[in-house]
Amino acid sequence: MTNVIEAEDLRRTYSGGFEAVNGISLAVPRGEVFALLGTNGAGKTSTVELLEGLAAPSGGTVRVLGHDPYRERAAVRPRIGVMLQEGGFPSDLTVAETVRMWAGCTSGARPTGEALEAVGLGARGGVRIKQLSGGERRRLDLALALLGRPEVLFLDEPTTGLDAEGRRDTWALVRALRDGGTTVLLTTHYLEEAESLADRLAIMHQGRIVLSGTPAEVTAAQPARIRFVLPEGVAPGRLPLGLKAAAEGRRVEIRTHELQDALGELLLWARDTGVRLEGLDARSASLEEAFLEIASRTTVDGTTVDRTTVEAGTR
């Protein structure tokens, strides 16, 4: 499968020596939705700007559709669509006027009505930008990104400000674009969005990609959990030795990478000993748990460690 986005040892250093992107590598094949996630300040926006060709990397290489998006911008720009976090359009123009103005700068632009219908703004063409809601402005941003029928689409927080219905409509549109062969790279703070849309994803932290793969692969890297409450008089020490349990009073949590085996062992023990496990809850890890585990890390002298360890050692 042909990769349409490729980055190798990509770096971006700002004045003062701050390295926002610290040697990341990624590849996105044609027709895939790839989500780039990360904590605030992780380097997502800096990375996407390099991929879009809005800035030159401080080190490493980047190719989009086989070209350097910064140095060969004329070859790349007509074939990509970019949805920024904020469009910044003239407030007194109408929606349709804004689309027509943008179409004048876009090769092979869709008709205005088609572009607006695609994002649910077909009936809002005569409304001035300043009268749009925040969600409607995001829809307009998306319409303009799609105007040139892009082969590669960059979406930066595409559903911020949208209501639940608008978010679902946008998801459906992104899936349809992918099914039609468009490659989509998106950033989002909504983990449910990444889990629902992304074929693959990467989580950034402090300028590096620390975890990547399909959503299932990323969540599988985290342990599943089993939670329950023991009856009065039953000590956690009576649990089978094969189960690594943490207890707080009568409340017990077991974390395991073998959920079925651990749950089976626990239930057999409960049956054989006549113990009733109150509030029993067993579930696989979620993308949110993987994200929060990464967010808890920090760096000390170039080494990534758990933040709680650092705080304990500095008190």
Automatic annotation (TrEMBL):
InterPro entries noted in UniProt: AAA+_ATPase, ABC_transporter-like_ATP-bd, ABC_transporter-like_CS, ABC_transporter_ATP-binding, P-loop_NTPase
Membrane-related topology note: Peripheral membrane protein
Compartments where located: Cell membrane
GO molecular function, one term: ATP binding
Gene3D superfamilies per the UniProt record, alphabetical: P-loop containing nucleotide triphosphate hydrolases
Alphabetical list of PROSITE patterns matching this protein: ABC_TRANSPORTER_1, ABC_TRANSPORTER_2
Record has Nucleotide-binding as a keyword: yes
Keyword line: Antibiotic resistance, ATP-binding, Nucleotide-binding, Transport
A Pfam family this chain is assigned to: ABC_tran
Span of domain ABC transporter: 5-231
Top-rank taxon: Bacteria
Protein name per its UniProtKB record: ABC transporter ATP-binding protein
Species this chain originates from: Streptomyces lateritius
